[in-house]
Amino acid sequence: VIDEVEYLKVCNLDQVWEGEMEVFEVDEEEVLIVHAPGGEVRAYNPICPHQEQPLIEGELENCVLTCSAHLWQFDVLSGEGINPTGTSLINYPVKTEEGAIWVAFPK
User: Fold this and answer.
1) Can you tell me the distance from the alpha carbon of 74 to that of 28, in angstroms, rounded to the nearest whole number?
2) What confidence tens digit (pLDDT) does each residue in 31-45 have?
3) What is the pTM of this model?
């Protein structure tokens, strides 16, 4: 359980185009920002839960992120596993304000 979080600016919204994803480092923490088709923005731990592969090396098509290593697939809007099911990405609360993307990290 996260008791307290602190929203930190990760990047400007125009740094991650709709339909793209990018990894940013904030206070020595890496975060995967996904700007999903349709405009929703999500923030995840950038490592695949399967065998700790970098998700940025994968492919984002529509709202499905496919890990490059073993082709695990995740719904980027929910973070839930599509193939296989029963798994999920670690997500962080995210908000967009004043043209920037802010992510909540544990204090």
Assistant:
1) 25
2) 999 999 999 999 999
3) 0.93
